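User: Can you help me understand a structure? I only have the sequence.
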Amino acid sequence: MDTIDAILKTAAERADEAEVYLSRAESVGAELSRDRVRIGQASHAIGLGIRVLAGGRVGASSTNDPSRWEACLEAALAALRLADPQPWQGLPGPVALPTDQLAFDPAVMLAPETVAALLDAMKAGAAEHPSASVTAGSAGLSRSTVEVANTHGLRYAEEETHASCSVEAIAGTSTGFEFAASHGLDLDPERVGEQAAFFAAHGVGGEGLATGTYDLVLSPLALAELLEAVLVPALVGRNVHAGRSRLAGRIGEQILDPRLSLYDDPHRPMGPGATWFDAEGVLTHRLDLIRKGVLAGFAYDLRTAYRYDATTTGSAVRGGYGGAPTTGFHTLVLEGPVTDVMADPAIYVRSVVGAHTANTITGDFSVEVSNPSFVEDGAFTTPVRTAMWGGNVFDLLSSIEGVSAESRNIGEMVLPALRVAGQRLVG
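Assistant: Let's start by predicting it. Here is the structure, written out as tokens:
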């Protein structure tokens, strides 16, 4: 009898239901210090999470040593006895899953020479801008497996691969960085290095900016930083019902530009969080959150759905094997009217500093823009030394100029660059 079966058999004798989450991962990677490898590393990790339920009470425990599952189960049962009851209608049962692998590339092998090649390619790309030098960087490859099982006979497993690289560069006092991540080996490490060095070199001698109103082009990274701080948490059911979302009670209302749509697509092949099932074994599906600017719905996991008389949207996620599942997103996709966002004069905002200080309920923010530069006719022109930018995320997204045709993966999101008009910057 394997570990999962043993846990479920024992737990069923002492609780109404039980759930097991088992993760295994292997990885190889290396880090740069300037242009030399500072450290290379390989790792193997395994983690076990157990959740038990009885009478509406929930207890959870975890360990990185599955051979100690009995102690882990006892800890979960002890937590169960201390928990307060809440509405609960049961864990899901099994259904047939598609056999396609959504986030697995067999070409991703844990080979040190592949990691070295990624590092060398980034350095070669950075060398295109000799006035900038590499200060740090990293590359890594991993393979992982996740299993979810429960006492209703559900047992799902999914394999995932991951490849990533990143680099930082400096020229004088101007810095730049770039990164790329994918489930496959479709990275472009040379461009990663070139872009990091470009932003460092381009920022040298940046000019002061006159305080005023400007058109802005937000890179996918800058857009992600603002969305993660305000819009994404506002779409989580738990925050909505707890009074921590400006969007509570507004389903069916126009909340963004009528040409913008935002949805979670967990079945997008090689999407950031591509998966057939969520962290609780619930089948995933496309979840339309904002459809042509109109608020269409919120995300729920089982616990939140039962508590607020809603339906789970297959949105349970885990940050790891420890703790209990929570509501999140798999592959958030933003779509809008495609245009050449850098054709007309604007200020390009590479990233922002301070987005985490935004008011998550009102949407107000005040940030410093990083690596800003004037752009025109698709090219970067005059660099800007620094600037402050304040506004409101909901207002910002209520009237846009357009989005780029190209999108990139940032965290769990797939985002284009976004052009907005009439934004006030303080030089």
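Now, to help you interpret it: The mean pLDDT is 97. The two ends are 67 Å apart (CA to CA). Let me know which part you'd like to focus on.
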